[in-house]
Amino acid sequence: MDSPKTHDEKLQMFFDGELAPEEEAAVRRSLEGSAEGSAQLREWEQLRSAMKNVASDWAGELDSDALFARIENEISAPVVPIEQTAPEQTALPALRVVPGGRERRVWGGVATGFAAAAAIFLAVMAWPEPHLDPTPIARGSEVLEADFGSNTGTIFEVEGGAGESLAVVWIDDEEVGLP
Amino acid sequence: MSLIRHLLVIAVLLGASVATGAAAQGSSLARSDRASTISNVPAEVLVILAKEEAGQIDPQLAKMTALRRPPFNSFRSMKILSRPKLKLTPGKDALVSLPNGRRMKLTLLRVMPDGRYKVKAAINRPDKSDYLPLLQVVASPGDPFFVAGQTYQGGTLVVGVIVDPKKTAR
Q1: Residues of chain B neighbouring A142 (CB-CB closer than 8 A)
Q2: pTM for the structure as a whole
Q3: What secondary structure does DSSP assign to A43-105, as a single string?
Q4: Predicted pLDDT at A114
């Protein structure tokens, strides 16, 4: 349920053209007999036109091309070492408030973060990786496949000196004579 | 200007990172390539005559503790009959004569990505396939595998094969 609008609110909405047609007609009728309301509307109208004039004057004075050219010159200007600063520049105050300093600090933080990440990445990549080492991690020996032919055989695993598992294939046979 | 310097530092660091990564990858590829194109690998075959009778264990076998564990622990004497050294070339057979007239045929099949060697072995009389037609083993450099059980002169032949014997795995 809408709360009833005060007279001032209705007048303001009438001025802004935000009232429903029937409300607008009612306000218009009430203004015909109200000098005070008409005066208020004229005052607002004067304010609005004054603001429009100021805004258009500022827009006309702003030279966007010159502004961008100045920014480009600032970026491409060579860095002047402190020792080579002209005498008239040394007279400038040592500290001054620079607009956008917060943004620079933020960018500096981001850049430092990136640099730290890159340094970590470098360290990880340059670190000797065990899997790249030609010396294998797997130790010992193991049987993949065995065909004992007509003999019987057994595959053992025996522990080596370093605890590694070594493959032993044991095949029974009768002693063969030398050819 | 400070912002530009920061960005330049980032660019340099990232460039260095990419270069290092590429170098590491290149090194990895080079090792992989070395593994696949390796020309030959040294190998050593230990031909041991083991007997249950009390006797001497060859001092050269003292460090091979595996020979004192089952199934070898029933042997109380061990003698090295021969210790031939050979070169294993991928795809080519290398022959070792055994004292009982059989021959051991060893073939290096490939070098595994983890550095181990895949080896094929067979033990037979010439032109026969009556004993061990086929055995395929993977072995780390310096770690032996054994083929035992052939009877000879009242004892048992234990044949140990060590691929790349000078390289000791960690």
Answers
A1: 137-139
A2: 0.53
A3: HHHHHHHHHHHHHHHHHHH--HHHHHHHHHHHHHSPPPPGGG--HHHHTS-S----TTHHHHH
A4: 77
